[in-house]
Structure formats: structure tokens, C-alpha cells
Amino acid sequence: MKRLTVALAASLALSACTKPDLTYSGPQADWPVIGQNSAGQRYSALNQIDRKNVKYLKPAWTYQLKDFSDGGETHGATALQLTPLVVNDTMYVCTPYNRVISLNPETGEEHWAYDPQVDLTGVYTPACRGVSYWEGDAGAQCNRRIYVGTLDARLIAIDADTGKPCPSFGAHAQTPGSIDLTQGVGEVRQAEYYVTSPPLVMGNKIITGAFVQDGQRTDAPSGAVRAFDAVSGDLLWAWDPVPPGHKAVTATDIKQGKNLTPGTPNAWGILSGDEERNLVFVPTGNPAPDHYGGKERGDLDYYGSSVVALNADTGKVIWHFQTVHHDVWDYDVAAQPVAFDFKGTGAEKRPAIAAATKMGHVFFLDRETGKPLLPVEERPVPQTDVAGEFTSPTQPFPVKPKPLHPATLTRDEIWGITPWDKKYCREFFDRLRYEGIFTPPSYQGTLAYPGLGGGINWGSVSIDPVNERMVVNLQIAPFTMKVVPRANVSESNGSDLVGLAPQEGTPYAVTRNVFATAWPDMKPCVEPPWGKLVSIDLNSGDILWERTLGNLNKLAPLGLGKLFPWGTPNTGGSIQTAGGLIFIGATMDNYFRAFDSDTGELLWEYELPSAAHATPMTYRLSQQSKQYVVIAAGGHGPLGSQAGDTLIAFALED
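Below the sequence we write its predicted C-alpha cells.
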């Protein structure tokens, strides 16, 4: 018996030291679109990396992008928000300065790099979230192309095999291979209009929106969405987002020298598409200039802060759903609308869209009609006291999924790490107007809770269509807004996030700031958690589980931050895999994490050289290859994360 016991103990010890068999013959997959597919689901059928073996994940290769800045130059600090593409055994990435690079996906070896030599003067946060891939007829010149939108408002077509500009694209332009996106959008001031998100490819059309700087003027550049021929770059259609009854400017008008309507809602986030129904889904912002909507802004709110479905061939509006009425909070729809199939309580599935917002609201909409698939209520909200302004008496609230961000805050809930912090925050709170969510901007200053960064931002949501689950990461980061009469404005010093914005053409400027302790600590004046990860059932809208996302690593002194799992403000997104995993960076603590998608249990984490304010991706080139997971770790200057330039690929140990 003693011998048997000793033998059994030896066997158990040996098995504990032996790694599991990591050879698989499962599926292979590319990542050909920024959201994995045009629906934006961010889901992979790969399962080589799973719940049991994810603990063996290690860096396989790294690549330094070389383009980053902490600020202090002619442009601001960079934000590395890149999601790479992998298609045809090749990886394609872009840097915050819009250089496009081709890599070997299994080694990180560089094939080619193309530098468009962008003018970065005045750009507050250089960023590039990704590129787009298109493939045409075999044998044709430049039949495989990479498209990138730039920070000086160009759309460039690059030969995916050689890294050279495609001469047929914009052949009549001053620089063949690119087209000027400022044509037809009106007067564009320095760094006021450019592209940070990859265009949408639908058939032989390249469709793009653009970033328009917040808070500047009523006659800001147009927010129109346009479609271009993938081969020639010719303008095919333009959606001028003016209300019904207005004369919309068309592509023909633009070719004849006419400008689009100024100040209209723009789409700076990521578009999505439905090839079967030939629809493009556009997330819109609010009309210029963000925090004042009196008669000077006109009636351009109709398509503001909405999800709009367009016919991909014509740009004609099929439907739209407005998430905020008469938006004066900068609650634009930053998140990519994500398509999925909704079953509800019945057996028949409906094509659906998940529209996630900065308020922490998620609306489930019918993909064909835009009608809510789960209940939405119009509820009374606070009203403005600013002369010349008006606000909507009600706002839409989803009943399910229930709002994910707290909708109220009391004085007793004001928080601080120390008694001095708490006193500072309570005195700050006492100076502000606050009556719950949708408290409008005011003369005395208003607490915006959720803040103008969300809630849920451009990282959007990920959807597992097999297990019918959605994963959302959101942040708790309140802001303040203060209306400043024009007579009291001496000089504009604002960025796209904080400071004083001029709002030219209106009676008021506006100041925006974080609701946090004094610099340099800048901790939110609300109780943790400051970051959350939430799983939602796609059929019922019920919350399945909720976890804190992030800790105070790099944010607390003496290296003690890891002891405080309070979550952090976050930007970036998640992906889900058939291995039962959720991968996400996004937080300010420099960690890249894997969670169990069934339970939300943290299974693995790895400390990166910089915070990963990006969305990861995964791929496997063949059944003989490893599955890789890649994340861009480069920080986000305006968020206070140290800038960097590292692309890291992880794989299981040999």
C-alpha cells in the first residue's frame, strides 16, 4: 500500500509538471476587417487558445512602429488605437502618423512600409485605428489594395503587395494614388477635419466619414458620408445629413463645385455594413458646435447622435434611430453599430443592430426598420436655463438591456481617496448644477455624468453569435461643462477634450473639464469602480455577469496600485473567441487580459510596456500554424497614458 501511495504521488507530481498537448488541427482564420467582419462582431471561431491553456500564452514577437510622441511638437501626444488586419498571409498596420506597414504575421518581419508624409500641424491627438482591404479582379493592376484615411484629410490606395500607391486611384489628382477629402466639405481650418477610422469596404465602394473638431463654429466642415469607386476614386454618392425638406447637396453638385451643408452631424467612428441587405450603418455625432443648440445651429439635429442606415449603392436613408434628442452634451454615437441575429423569446430570428452609446445605453434595433426590438421609454429630463437655448422634454431610455452607467449621483456618494480629496470633490460638486443624467450645460457649470467620453466609446462591443452574448467595456469618468457668455471670452485654449472651445456663431463659448481631484493626481470624484466589463444575453437583454476592469497599476505611488482593483477609465475594445475567451486591453494600468466568457473570471494577464488603448485581434494562417493574439500597446497621451509604439503578438508556448 505504501509503494502504491508513493507511486501515485510521483505520478501526480509528474503530471503537474507536464504541460498539456498544445497541438491542434482546428480551424484557421484571417482578420480581414477591423471588426473581423463588416458586421463589426469582433468574434473569432479559433479555439487553439482556450480556457484551459491560456495561462501558457507568451509573447511570440514584437514590432516597434517607431511613430509616437508625448507631445510638445507641432502636434499633440499620440494615441495608439490600432487593430491590425491579417489577410492573404499578410498583416497590415498603420501608425499614429499614418505610415502603413506590411508584416509577416508569424514573425513580425517587415515586408514594406509606406509613408504618406502627412501634415500633422495642429493635430491634437495623432491616431489611426486601422486600414481597410479590398480585392478586385485577378491579374488587374493593383488588384489588392489597402486604403487609409489620413490626418491631413486624404484617402490613399496602396498596392497591398508592393506598398506603392495605386496610380489609377485619383488618377487626375495632383498626387495619383490619393484623393482630397476636403473637396466639397466647405472651409477647413488647420487640423479641423481628418480621418482616424478605417473606411468601410462594400463591394467596389469605399465609404468614409471623418472627424470634425468639437466646439469650434456653427459653420464647421460638413459631416457628410461619401462613397468612392474602389478603383478610380471617383465620387459615387454623398449623404448630406440635412433634415427632410431641406435641399441636400449631391455628388453631382459637388463635382460642379458646390459645397455640402456646413455644421451637419459627422461620423468619426467606425461604420459597419450588411452585404446581404446592401446597407451601411452610420454612427453620427451631434451637429456643430456641440454644447449649444439654439436658433444659430438651425434644425440640423434630425440625424444627430443617431444610427442611420443608408443604401450602399445610393446613400439614400433607409431608417434612422436617434439615441439623444437635441444633443447638447457631445453624446455622439462613438461606437460602431454591431449586427447580430435577435431571437428574443420566440423561435424566429430577426436581423438586429446593437447601438451602444456614451450614456451606457445599448439599444437593440431591427436591422431592416430601425425599430427597437426591446422596450425603449421616453422619460422626462432636466431642462435648460440658458437664454436662447432649448432642450428636449424627454430622452429615450432602454428598458433592456438596462442602462449600464449610473444615472444619478448624490452628494453623499462623492468620493476621495483621502479626506482632503473628498472635501475638494464635495466643494467642487456643490458649485455645479446636477439633476441626474441629461442635466444640460449651464452658466454655473454642469456635472456631466456620464462624461462626454462615455460610458461606451469607439471600442464598441463584441458579440459571440454562437453563444448569443455581447460583451461591453465601459468607463466611469465624469466631466463638467460651463456655458460662457461671449462677452466674457478672451481667448480660446481648448482641445478636443478639455479647456475652452469658442463655439463661434453662437452667443456662448463652453469650457469642458474632468470632474476629478486637482492636478497632478486627477482621480475621479466618484466611487470606484471606474471601469467595468459586462456580459449581456443577446435575446433577453439580461446582464449575465459584471466585473471590475483594471487596477491602479502605474496610477498609484510606491508601486502599490496593483493592490487596488478599482477599475480605470478605459478606451479600446474586446474580442471574443470560440475558445471561450474574452481578450481586452483598454485600461490605463498597462495590462492585457483574458477572461472566461461564461463567468467573467480573470484567467490570464500580462503587463505591457504601455497601456493598450486599442482593440486586439487574432488569427491562424493554417492548421499547422499557431493561433496568435495581437495587441497594440502605445498609450494615449490625452488620457495620461505614456505614449509608446509596441505591437505584440502572443501565442502558446512550444
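The two ends are 38 Å apart (CA to CA).
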